[in-house]
Amino acid sequence: MKQEMLAMILAGGQGSRLGVFTKRIAKPAVSFGGKYRIIDFVLSNCSNSGIDTVGVLTQYRPRILNSHIGMGSHWDLDRINGGVYILQPYMSEKEGHWYNGTANAIYKNMNFIDDYNPEYLLVLSGDHIYKMDYSEMLNFHKEKNAKATIAVIEVPWDEASRFGIMNTEEDKKIYEFEEKPKDPKSNLASMGVYIFNWKTLKEYFLRGQKTKECFDDFGKDVIPAMLNDGVEMYAYPFRGYWRDVGTIDSLWEANMDLIKTPEAIDLSDQNWKIYTNTMDLPPQYIGKYASVKESLVADGCSVLGSVENTVLSHKVEVGEGSTIRNSVIMPNVKIGKNVVIEKAMIAEGAIIKDNAVIKDDNNEISVISEYEVVEGERAKVEA
After folding, report:
1. Pair 165, 70: CB distance under 8 Å
2. pTM here?
3. CA distances from 60 to 72, 98, 215 (A)
4. DSSP characters for 293-345?
5. How many other C-beta atoms can be found within 10 angstroms of the C-beta atom of residue 183?
6. What separation in angstroms does the CA of 50 have from each of 63, 256, 327, 341?
7. Radius of gyration of the chain (CA)
8. How far apart are CA 306 and CA 46, in angstroms?
9. Residue 81 has pLDDT above 80, yes or no
10. Structural contact between residues 185 and 167, judged by C-beta atoms closer than 8 angstroms
11. Looking at residue 13, what is its pLDDT?
């Protein structure tokens, strides 16, 4: 069953910085953009790039993520030869059953990868929002005769110290990797998208078995070791929208981007669709005296009040006289009458009672937990 390139999606992150939004589910399963989950973007990238064999490595609270992906049919990944596979940690005789890092997760699934005997292995993060044609990155990898290629994006210089930075020659050959440097030499940030020659990467894993060297993490262990050994490694420049939605601020901002700059990641692009596990819901209902401006409103919503610059996920109810601005409302939230919500993120299933006010005087994001009942006035809630 030899494949030219097999994809492995790292989707086991706990996502603790997302606070209340990941108490019950893994970060890649968090709701995004009204009708999607975060992992839909990388799965759609695989499907649109012609990659038909994908392993999804789960760990933290995987039930909802597993149910969402199912057999992969929504992404055209329900194949007889190939398709999507949910790969959960399992107990081995010599090692524990948890994944100890990004590279360790791949290492513990070597048998699965070897079943397909790929020439190239594509390693992806399941919690980023972007569109990328991985076949173009593979062509770059081949042209450079690389053993490893890392996708990079230019970030503002004043933010470069927050990322893993790749320092390159003019031909994009990587000569140095710096993890969150104080004084960065470049602004080429790693996107967490890797293509390895599988034979080369496997050699490091087998070396680790013999020498007890630690190759648990790509950024901390594998990439520095490859650079030290002179492995041909290149940076693939990506020019497009990309956002790591690992914090409440970044998740809110990425949702707002869909409204303010929808062309940045065009959800209506018929040439690069973002697929998801759709539900059979009734159409949205906008009441006679309702007002909806510059907002995304998913199916199953009922809006009787005013909604502006806001994302309403499926089955959200907005009562009469209520005003919602600059907010992200997760699925199944019930908002009563004469409610005021300003710059908030409200988790799934919350109930906002009549006349409640959710607003922060310092213009920070207010956060409401899953299934929380809010009455009266509520200032910012710490996640």
Report:
1. no
2. 0.91
3. 20, 10, 21
4. ES-EE-TT-EE-SEEES-EE-TT-EE-TT-EEES-EE-TT-EE-TT-EEESEE
5. 7
6. 27, 30, 36, 43
7. 22
8. 38
9. no
10. yes
11. 67
